[in-house]
Write a structure and sequence with these properties.
Blueprint (H helix, E strand, L loop, with lengths): L1 E9 L5 H22 L2 E8 L5 E10 L2 H10 L1 H4 L3 E9 L5
Antiparallel strand pairs: 1-3, 1-4, 2-3
């Protein structure tokens, strides 16, 4: 499987955290499905110095690049513009 590191940062407007929290249940629902399907390896929120969520980091895996694109096309944090910018890089989890 092809693995990917996703690093994403939320919008910096004053309502960013509220917007994230409103969309979060839909995001987590999708992550749970990806975990069941073996696509989700690990992930979580990036926090600021005050412990508030300001972004996300995930390691995902897919058989085909189109599956990655399908995820991006349906990910609520992307579609609802919670993530202001995100980066996807090929990745390989160490086998230790």
């Amino acid at each position: 499987m092809n693995q990917y590191l996703i690093t994403a940062f939320d919008s910096t407007n004053e309502n960013a955290l509220d917007h994230r929290m409103n969309i979060r249940p839909y995001h987590l629902e999708g992550v749970k499905k990806m975990k069941e399907n073996g696509n989700f390896i690990i992930g979580g929120a990036i926090l600021n110095d005050d412990g508030k969520m300001i972004g996300s980091s995930m390691i995902l895996q897919f058989e085909k690049p189109q599956e990655l694109q399908n995820w991006m096309d349906s990910e609520p944090y992307i579609q609802q513009k919670v993530w202001e910018k995100f980066d996807v890089k090929p990745f390989r989890v160490a086998n230790v």
